[in-house]
Amino acid sequence: MKAPSAPSSPWQLLYSGAHRLRRQWYRTRAQRLPRPVVSVGNLHWGGSGKTPLVAAIAAHLRDRGAAVCILSRGYASQGRGVRVVSTGEGPILGPLVAGDEPVLLAGELPGVAVVVGPDRHRDGVQALRRLEPAPDLFLLDDGFSHLRLHRDLDLVAFPAGDPFGGGRLLPSGRLREPLAAMARAHAAILTGAPDGERQGEKLAEALRPHGFTGPGFVSRTAPGEVRGAELPAGARVFLVTAIARPEAFTNTVRALGFEIVDELRFPDHHRYPPASLARIAETWRASGAAAVLTTSKDRVKLHGQLDVPLAEIPIRAEPEPAFWEWLDGEIGRLRG
Predict the structure, then answer these.
(1) Residues 137-163: what's their mean pLDDT?
(2) How far apart, in whole angstroms, are the C-alpha atoms of residue 111 and residue 215?
(3) Most exposed residue of 181, 221, 258, 303, measured as fewest CB within 10 angstroms of its CB?
(4) pLDDT in tens, 9-23
(5) Rg (CA), the chain
(6) What is the pLDDT of residue 67?
(7) Tell me, what's the pLDDT at 240?
(8) Most confident of 9-23, 70-84, 153-167, 228-242
(9) Domain harbouring 193, CATH code
(10) pLDDT confidence bin for 102, thresholds 50/70/90
(11) Is residue 251 part of a domain?
């Protein structure tokens, strides 16, 4: 595994320079919350396996006695200001108001609070005032680029299928920040990694030339049990997705032995307006499939909106044991 060298085109140099100035600006201006803040983010534009990793970390910390509150921007939501999506007893807001990923996390994580808003510092302050029990640890969903809030731990996810995004920023690459931004990260996690030795170490070593000094780990991705409509092995299914990397979901469904008879792929975070719902229903009826099969993130938006059998395959992140050992040590240091 080898990370690309820093790009040298005029545009890439200009874009990288702008990011460097932004990081320098916030270095002494980032606001702090009075509780430890752990960020899980990525350098890619979507599709890094970040949300299942956030869920796994939140559940791990909850099970060790922490009062965890996830802070999320609520990307593509229509709501405004600070919104409490869950106090730990399931979602109390829908995906249009809160965003699809926060609602998904709220449904998957009993005992974990979820709050969304554009300003994560203000969100955290409101969470401390409004939640009971008050959080003693904040977990930022997609927080690596949110420099206005100080983070005590920055964890960065890299998808195994495309770990370095071509090494370039938009428009010629798939990175939102240059690899040099890893100089401020505390750990790198290779998500969706196949079984193999030392992949985490290889990721960390590949990032060393870009200033990264932390450890590297791997996180396996595993499908959960099908939920919703009952689907026997080999059932004919019609896939509907609105995620950054739909091909990964397609491969998972195929590996589970289902017969894919048709598929509709919408843009990431698609809201499924009436025209899209009608298209899904019409295509499903013509396909002869037993059910519409989708991701958990999509099902929170489609549930109750379609008069068709609807099923989902949840995706779990399973970080290696060495990651949990390292994280527990870091959290103990922060809370100690």
Answers:
(1) 92
(2) 30
(3) 303
(4) 666 677 677 767 777
(5) 20
(6) 97
(7) 98
(8) 228-242
(9) 3.40.50.300
(10) very high
(11) yes
In a domain, 2, yes or no: no
The dihedral sign for the CA sequence 278, 283, 286, 291: negative
Helix (H) or strand (E) holding 139: strand 137-141
Q: Which has more pLDDT, 53 or 166?
A: 53
Query: Residues 202, 49, 187, 171: what is their CA dihedral angle, to the nearest 10 degrees?
Result: 80
Give me the pLDDT at residue 54, please.
Answer: 97
> Same domain, yes or no, for 279 and 235?
yes
Cβ–Cβ < 8 Å for 116, 74: yes
As given in the structure block, the two tokens for residue 303 are 């549930």
Residues 162 and 36 in one domain: yes
Residue 60 lies in a domain: yes
Q: How far is CA 133 from CA 56, 67, 220, in A?
A: 21, 7, 32
Of 108, 93, 104, 114, the residue nearest 300 (C-alpha): 104
**Mode of pairing for the β-strands spanning 187-191 and 68-72:** unpaired
Same domain, 27 and 175: yes
pLDDT at 8: 62
Amino acid identity at 325: E
Domain assignment of residue 4, yes or no: no
This prediction has a pTM of 0.92
Whole domain around residue 145: which residue ranges? Answer: 10-221+318-335
Same domain, 64 and 99: yes
When divided into structural domains, the chain yields a total of 2
Residue with tokens 């170490």: 201
- CA–CA distance, 214 with 105 (Å, rounded to integer): 27
**Nearest CA among 220, 223, 247 for reference residue 296:** 223
